[in-house]
Specification:
alpha+beta; 5 strands; elongated; binds FE2/S2 (inorganic) cluster
C-alpha cells in the first residue's frame, strides 16, 4: 500500500491505496464520489473526466498514486453555495442530457475548454469534447449547453433559442 494526500473539491484526504488503483476507482470507491462515471475500459468514453491541477484528465488513465499532492475537482465540486455552475445550468436549460451518464465528464471537459477560451465557436466546442462520447443526445444540445454557460460566464445573457433549435428529448 502507498499513502497519498489529495485535495478533492476543496477537502483534504489522506488514504492508503494499492499501487494499481486507478484514480477513478479511488474517487468512487474510497471517497464515495460516484458522480465520476466509468463507461468503458479502453479510455475512450470520457465519462470519468475530472480536473486535476486545473487540467481535465480521464481519471481511468491515471493511477491514484500519480495524483498524490494534486488538487482535484469532480462534478460534485462544481456547484457553489447551492447554486449550479453555469455549465450545470446550461445542460439543464438547453436539454444537454438524456440518460445523463456522459454528463459529468462532458461538463468537466467543457470546464477545461471555458477556462482557456471564454467564447468558443461551435467547432471549437465540438473539438474540445471529441474525447467524450454520448449515446443519447446527438451532441447538438450539448453544444448549445456549453454556449449557454460560456455566455453566462462572460456576464452576458445567453441567446434565446426557439424550441425548434433545442431538440427535445424523445
Ligand atoms: S471510463 Fe471511459 S474514458 Fe475513462
Ligand atoms: S445523455 Fe446518455 S450518454 Fe449522453
Amino acid at each position: 500500500m502507498s499513502t497519498i494526500s489529495v485535495t478533492v473539491n476543496g477537502r483534504s484526504y489522506q488514504n492508503d491505496v494499492e499501487p494499481r488503483t486507478l484514480l477513478v476507482h479511488y474517487l468512487r470507491d474510497s471517497l464515495g464520489l460516484t458522480g465520476t462515471h466509468i463507461g468503458c475500459d479502453t479510455s475512450q468514453c470520457g465519462a470519468c473526466t475530472v480536473m486535476l491541477d486545473g487540467v481535465s484528465v480521464k481519471s481511468c488513465t491515471l493511477l491514484a498514486v500519480q495524483a498524490d499532492g494534486a488538487k482535484i475537482t469532480t462534478i460534485e465540486g462544481l456547484a457553489q453555495d447551492g447554486q449550479f455552475h453555469p455549465l450545470q445550468e446550461g445542460f439543464w436549460e438547453r436539454h444537454g442530457l438524456q440518460c445523463g451518464f456522459c454528463t459529468p465528464g462532458m461538463i468537466m471537459s467543457a470546464c477545461d475548454l471555458l477556462q482557456q477560451n471564454s467564447n468558443p465557436s461551435e467547432a471549437e466546442i465540438r473539438h474540445a469534447l471529441e474525447g467524450n462520447l454520448c449515446r443519447c443526445t446527438g451532441y447538438h444540445n450539448i453544444v448549445k449547453s456549453v454556449q449557454y454557460a460560456a455566455a453566462k460566464m462572460r456576464g452576458e445573457q445567453p441567446e434565446e433559442v426557439s424550441t425548434e433549435s433545442v431538440a427535445q428529448p424523445a
